[in-house]
Design goal:
The protein is an alpha+beta fold and about 170 residues long. About 55% of the residues lie in helices and about 15% in strands. It starts with a helix and ends with a strand.
Length: about 170
């Protein structure tokens, strides 16, 4: 493995692990310190902590699927996609720094939720925001990682290169 490839691998793994760690540590605190459906107001009614165990996906989609279907759709398939994404990250000859970080965030967030599904058969969600007309579902730090990564990828794709100082992470 060349020095640049080792650097990319280490950086990618570090970013993924940081996202997984933030997600798992925050969920651990919530599991230990907030009762199920308890509401802790952080900023009035605008930001609330509440513990919900979600056996489905976003907004409980698929919660009533048979166990084998849930395992396939919410664990095996996502894990295969995340492994491919990491492979892509390592194999892509030139990739912008923003795309590299964004994909790493998506991988870390995805793995964070898969860990919950494997260990607890559900995902611990605990944050709710309401700002003006914006009302979120209940979410967690893994969801934040995936969302920030996706927004960064869209931003990177839509903003013309001349407005960004694009520097690539080369192998």
């Amino acid at each position: 493995m060349t020095q640049n490839r080792m650097y990319r691998f280490t950086l990618g793994l570090l970013l993924v692990m940081l996202n997984i760690s933030c997600d798992q540590l925050s969920k651990k605190e919530v599991r230990e310190n907030i009762a199920s459906h308890e509401k802790v107001q952080v900023v009035n009614d605008n930001f609330i902590l509440t513990k919900v165990e979600n056996t489905g996906a976003a907004l409980s989609f698929g919660a009533s699927f048979p166990p084998i279907v849930k395992t396939l759709i919410f664990q095996i398939l996502p894990l295969l996609i995340l492994i491919y994404m990491f492979y892509y990250l390592m194999q892509k000859k030139e990739i912008s720094r923003l795309s590299f970080v964004a994909i790493s965030f998506i991988i870390g967030g995805g793995i964070g939720n898969i860990i919950d599904r494997v260990l607890y058969n559900s995902v611990t969600d605990f944050m709710y925001m309401e700002v003006g007309p914006l009302h979120t579902g209940i979410f967690n730090m893994a969801d934040v990682s995936v969302t920030v990564g996706a927004i960064a990828l869209v931003f990177n794709a839509l903003v013309p290169e001349k407005f960004l100082k694009k520097q690539s992470v080369q192998s």
